[in-house]
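Can't paste images in this forum, so I'm doing it all in text. The chain is below; anyone willing to post the predicted C-alpha cells underneath?
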Amino acid sequence: MTTDEVLAGVGPRLRQMRKEREVTLAALSETTGISVSTLSRLESGLRKPSLELLLPIARAHQVALDELVGTPPTGDPRVRSKPIVMGGRTHWPLTRQPGGLQAYKVLEPKRRQEPDPRTHEGYEWLYVLSGKLRLVLGEHDVVLTAGEAAEFDTRVPHWFGSTGEGPVEFLSLFGPQGERMHVRARPKGA
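Text version of the structure:
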C-alpha cells in the first residue's frame, strides 16, 4: 500500500470513528482545539492529515495513532531462520534486519577445546540457556551456568565454548562490529 493510499483512507476512517462514538464535529472541535471546518475537510479528504491534527484526534478518541491512519499489517512477526553451522557450532539468527544489533541462539556441542582468545571491535552479551559455558576473558577464566549472563568489550582477548562436560545452549548479542573477522590476540614479541 502506497503512502497516498494510506493517507486517502484516513478521512473516511476519521468520519466513521466519530460517528460510531456519536460525537459531533462541534464537540470534537471543542475537545481537540481544531476548527470545525478543518475537521470537516480532513474527513472529506480535502485536507491532508498531519501529526499536528491527528495526535489531538487520537487523544480525543482514546485510540492509537495507528488506528487513525490504518497502517497496513506488518505480516507474520515470527523469525524463521535456518541454522548456520560454523566451526562446529550451530547458530540460529534471531534478527532479520542487516546491520545494527544482531542476536543469535547458539548450540555448542560437548567438546573440550584449548582456548584461543581473539579480539574484534564491538561489545558482546552472552546468556546461558542450558549447560555450562566456559568464558576466557583477559585474565579471567569463568564458567557460566543456565540463567547467567556476561557482557564485555570484545577488544579484550576472549574465547568461549563448552566446558567439555556436555553441550551448552546460549544467546549471543552483538553490534555490527562483532560481525567482523576475529583477529588473533597475541602478546607483542610472541
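The first strand starts at residue 84 and ends at 86. Confidence is low (pLDDT under 50) at residues 178-186.
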